[in-house]
Design a protein that fits this description.
Number of helices: 32
Structural class: alpha/beta
Strand order of the largest sheet: 19-18-17-20-21-22
Distance between the termini: 19 Å
Largest sheet: 6 strands, parallel
Radius of gyration: 27 Å
CATH superfamily of one domain: Glycogen Phosphorylase B
């Protein structure tokens, strides 16, 4: 979520008033804003997407709730010591959190372990351990529409009789200390991005948020005028018409068997009725196609922790496979491929398969990704129900990612096309009229230069590094992962360095290369990549021959509040994942909206950015998905590229020989070995095209006017990538709710006038 103060002021239309009031008190608003901690309650893009979606849902007047876990410790703080990443705990609540309100009156029990008793009246889950879920509510204000939605985050609490109700008359002190075991559930965020780690505590977290949330949703449903209560039980027929639940990846997949358990075991609905309601309630968003990221929980772990849920999953699977067998008799391989249970070695539950079977809609997050989901990863399921599969291209909120972080550019745009674009970003196309306007071109360039100077001053103040603000700011910020190919950027840096040293007198367009991002603490290769970038930077930055022509900065502790500073100052945005690996990307959209040009592959939303702006207005290079597939078919041979490209050979040899690590010559042997022998992401195959494309970038940068005209064309084409557009599509195609442009009256005005006109709102 990042910081809340400035976003709240902007959405409430109070920023100028607050700035002025604080100034009158002899204080500086920007200084105050810098004191607030980031709420870092997720990993990379998936967590930030949820935050943008909350902003858009409130701005569109949807009755929507964001549910999650109130981690005591969020994503770790990254320190760089001697070039290595070191993790520190993110104690973000140390000074309290003024934006949250604890709601103990809505506390709910969540059960674990135990066993299942079967009787004529049905199944009962008994002898469980109970953990309480305490909700904390954070307001989510819409933009200038007097709407405030809620983000409800659950915190784990031990019940007061925890470990004391049993006959263990034993150790009272120890029993109280053991309360920590229950409360550890919401202690810390697992810091993996695009990687599955099958730990028991993580499964507990996933079930904890799901069980608490579903109880909350059902309580609200029963209390509403829609849940018509007769003396026997609530009628749940209208449930899917009143409630839509979107599963953000498979992490909350246990919601499917949990809702079935509530309907069948507690509310005593017949299975087929319960299943119909469940399917119509859930929809699933897939966020990655990397096999190592797909959740596959061991059956024996689920059996221990959630025995009743395992039985329900088996029943779902049996009915699912019976259905397929009736359509494809004797096709045992299809049954094996489509089963929710993977046999062989340890039996595992494929959570993506559970989500597909238990949802009425499945979507990817960019056109190209949705095609891969449909035609490759889940092709058997798409063959069965093609109408279930959709695309919803990701977006970003223009409130945080333009108004808040780049007020200079936002104001310049407003002068030309008015202020309405903030709620309707498609209006940015009106900027096409000004592409040839010399004054506008100069003003856009001036705003960018001011942002660069401001960021340079920030780096100098915080990190004691001096950079040249007139150099090209070439920025690569995102989680560190092999598929995102920070290594390819690193090879390009070394190549530029070698060219400068070879011919110091030759014209060279000065660059400051800024790379930033966190590596999962257990991801050895990602940590080696960080060390390599810092080692290369150390050599490059201290070579007198290079001078100020080339600087390499590793940006420590990349997070939302730092993104808000670096993105508006960026000239060149690096989006260079191997085609077919980045589901969408959203940083790419933030850079485009803030006047950077993109160098990138035809991957994720880059494809649609090129479609919107015209491919000639992005620096597109490298293999397409088809080329990658073809290369896999014939076998990728890294050695071939190394042998044929002298500059690549030189760069790799320098890494290998210890040129960048003279005290430890074989420090990077694992990295080099990976590049030659098991590089799934084919860095060498795209190296030549990347370096050539970078030469075109430098050439254009020399012509400031031509560069800025291309920038304006990009900004004018960025309208599609508002999360408002994304959410309108979810609302229309999946949730079946109408966004409302109605600005509800403020609390100081009488409401009765509009009270009766409120349509039946559905909660998403």
């Amino acid at each position: 979520m990042g910081r809340t103060l400035q976003n709240t002021m902007i959405n409430l239309g109070l920023q100028n008033a607050c700035d002025e009031a604080v100034y009158q008190l002899g204080l500086d608003m920007e200084e105050l804003e810098e004191i607030e901690e980031d709420a870092g309650l997720g990993n990379g893009g998936l967590g930030r997407l949820a935050a943008c979606f909350l902003d858009s849902m409130a701005t569109l007047g949807l009755a929507a709730y964001g549910y999650g876990i109130r981690y005591e410790y969020g994503i770790f703080n990254q320190k760089i010591r001697d070039g290595w990443q070191v993790e520190e705990a993110d104690d973000w609540l140390r000074h309290g959190n003024p934006w949250e309100k604890a709601r103990p009156e809505y506390m709910l029990p969540v059960h674990f372990y135990g066993r299942v008793e079967h009787s004529p009246t049905g199944a009962k889950w008994v002898d469980t351990q109970v953990v309480l879920a305490l909700p904390y509510d954070t307001p989510v204000p819409g933009y200038m529409n007097n709407t405030v939605n809620t983000m409800r985050l659950w915190s784990a609490r031990a019940p007061n009789d925890f470990n004391l109700r049993d006959f263990n008359v034993g150790d009272y002190i120890q029993a109280v200390l053991d309360r920590n075991l229950a409360e550890n559930i919401s202690r810390v965020l697992y810091p993996n991005d695009n990687f599955f780690e099958g730990k028991e505590l993580r499964l507990k977290q996933e079930y904890f948020v799901v069980a608490a949330t579903l109880q909350d949703i059902i309580r609200r449903f029963k209390a509403s005028k829609f849940g018509s209560t007769d003396s026997v039980r609530t009628v749940f027929d209208s449930f899917p018409d009143q409630v839509a639940i979107q599963l953000n990846d498979t992490h909350p997949a246990m919601a499917i068997p949990e809702l079935m358990r509530i309907f069948v075991d507690i509310e005593k609905l017949p299975w087929s009725k319960a299943w119909d309601i469940t399917k119509r309630t859930f929809a699933y968003t897939n966020h990655t196609v990397l096999p190592e990221a797909l959740e596959r929980w061991p059956v024996d772990l689920v059996e221990k922790l959630l025995p009743r849920h395992l039985q329900i999953i088996y029943e779902i699977n049996q009915r699912h496979l019976d259905h397929i067998a009736s359509l494809f008799p004797n096709d045992v391989d299809r049954l094996r491929r489509m089963s929710l249970i993977e046999e062989g070695g340890t039996k595992r539950i494929n959570m993506a398969h559970l989500c597909i079977v238990g949802s009425h809609a499945v979507n990817g997050v960019a056109k190209i990704h949705s095609e891969i989901v449909k035609n490759q990863v889940f092709e058997d399921f798409a063959a069965l129900e093609p109408e279930k599969f959709q695309n919803k291209t990701n977006g970003i909120t223009p409130r945080r990612w333009l108004l808040l972080c780049n007020p200079g550019l936002a104001e310049l745009i407003a002068e030309k096309i008015g202020e309405d674009y903030v709620r309707d970003l498609s209006q940015l196309t009106k900027l096409h009229k000004f592409v040839e306007d010399d004054l506008f071109i100069r003003e856009v360039a001036k705003v960018k230069q001011e942002n660069k100077v401001k960021f340079a001053l920030y780096l100098e103040k915080e990190y004691k590094v001096k950079i040249n603000p007139s150099s090209m700011f070439d920025v690569h910020v995102k989680r560190i992962h092999e598929y995102k190919r920070q290594l390819m950027n690193c090879l390009h840096i070394i190549t530029m360095y070698n060219r400068i040293r070879k011919d110091p007198a030759k014209l060279f367009v000065p660059r400051t290369v800024i790379i930033g991002g966190k590596a999962a603490p257990g991801y050895h290769m990602a940590k080696m990549i960080i060390k390599l970038i810092n080692a290369v930077g150390h050599v490059v930055n201290n070579d007198p021959v290079v001078g100020s022509k080339l600087k390499v900065i590793f940006l420590e502790n990349y997070r939302v509040s730092l993104a808000e500073k670096v993105i508006p100052a960026t000239d060149l945005s690096e989006q260079i994942s191997t085609a077919g690996t980045e589901a969408s990307g959203t940083g790419n959209m933030k850079f485009m909206l803030n006047g950077a040009l993109t160098i990138g592959t035809m991957d994720g939303a880059n494809v649609e950015m090129a479609e919107e702006a015209g491919e000639e207005n992005l620096f597109i290079f490298g293999m397409r998905v088809e080329d990658v597939t073809e290369l896999d078919r014939e076998g990728y041979n890294a050695q071939k590229y190394y042998d044929q490209l002298p500059e690549l050979k030189q760069a790799v040899d320098q890494i290998k020989s210890g040129f960048f690590s003279p005290k430890e010559p074989d420090l990077f042997k694992d990295v080099v070995n990976m590049l030659f022998h098991h590089d799934r992401f084919k860095v060498f195959a795209d190296y030549e095209a990347y370096v050539k494309c970078q030469e075109k970038v430098s050439e254009l940068y020399l012509n400031s006017k031509a560069w800025t005209k291309m920038v304006i064309r990009n900004i004018a084409a960025a309208g599609k990538f508002s999360s408002d557009r994304t959410i309108k599509e979810y609302a229309r195609d999946i949730w079946h709710v109408e966004p409302s442009d109605l600005k509800i009256p403020p609390p100081n005005e009488p409401r009765d006038a509009v009270e009766d006109k409120t349509p039946n709102g559905t909660a998403a």
